[in-house]
Design goal:
This protein is an alpha/beta fold. It contains seven helices and twelve strands. The chain has a single domain, classed as Purple Acid Phosphatase, chain A, domain 2 (4-Layer Sandwich), CATH 3.60.21.10. The longest helix is centred in the N-terminal third of the chain and has 18 residues. About 2% of the residues have low confidence.
């Protein structure tokens, strides 16, 4: 478990689901600029920054090639990290093919599964949120295929001009990857991430569960001393989480 203690007047920030590149590079460019402006606005008082996945709508790392674009957000993340601000990145279902580019080029830690953090003595379980709980079975099957080493090896043999274009098309169009259901609140009893959190609480206490993936800004009390937070997105809501001293809440940029 990683421990973070904030200094005076410092805060911990959380954001997810920017989906840069979707539906086209031109249409996502204003959102990239807005997200970069937000990163710039928090640099003076950020103790740490958590990015909870789907920063890109499609991402695949060849051995010597990454998708074209996103230089502004990558440059800003590099500047924050160079300024001494820890950044923790969790891969989502759209950037699950991320390997070591962020770690080597930006010195940013990358996680592929949810992780426990202790922030000012508040225990948190943090991750993207895809594939958790008993539901989402279609996606779980798809993820096993997409992350199977042999299929990744086959895809890598496609020329990047073909592979990236194909991946971007599938990411935007395929409902299994970009499902519309993420935009609708299903009711607390039908929200599978809520049910996942409640099951985790049966064996281990967490003050906060922090996830993305659902594209909805949600703050749901699970118990008197435990809260599930979904960060929303940077497509429609432009919401983020901020932990200030001992409480975590959502805000809108």
């Amino acid at each position: 478990m990683i421990t973070i203690n904030t200094s005076d007047n410092k805060k911990v920030y959380f954001a997810s689901d920017q989906h840069l590149g979707a539906p086209t590079a031109a249409e996502s460019f204003p959102r990239e600029k807005k997200f970069v402006a937000w990163l710039d606005s928090i640099k003076e008082n950020a103790e740490a920054v958590f990015l909870l996945g789907d920063l890109f709508d499609f991402w695949f790392e060849y051995k010597t090639v990454v998708p074209k674009g996103f230089v502004r957000v990558l440059g800003k993340l590099a500047a924050l990290k160079d300024a001494g601000i820890p950044i923790y990145f969790f891969v989502g279902n759209h950037d699950l093919w991320m390997n070591d580019y962020f770690e080597k080029e930006l010195n940013i830690t990358v996680y592929h599964t949810p992780q426990e953090f202790l922030i000012n003595n508040k225990k948190m379980l943090i991750g993207h949120g895809d594939g958790l709980g008993p539901e989402d079975k279609g996606y779980k099957r798809m993820k096993k295929v997409f992350t199977f080493p042999f299929f990744k090896w086959l895809f890598r043999w496609l020329h990047p001009d073909i592979g990236v274009k194909l991946g971007q098309y599938m990411s935007v169009k395929n409902k299994l990857i970009s499902g519309d259901e993420d935009a609708k609140f299903l009711g607390e009893e039908n929200e599978w991430l809520v049910q996942y959190c409640k099951r985790k609480l049966a064996s281990n206490h967490y003050d906060y569960f922090v996830f993305g993936h659902r594209h909805l800004p949600l703050e749901i009390k699970l118990q008197e001393d435990s809260t599930y937070i979904n960060l929303g997105d940077w497509i429609q809501y432009f919401t983020y989480g901020v932990f200030n001293e001992n409480e975590l809440h959502l805000k809108k940029y």
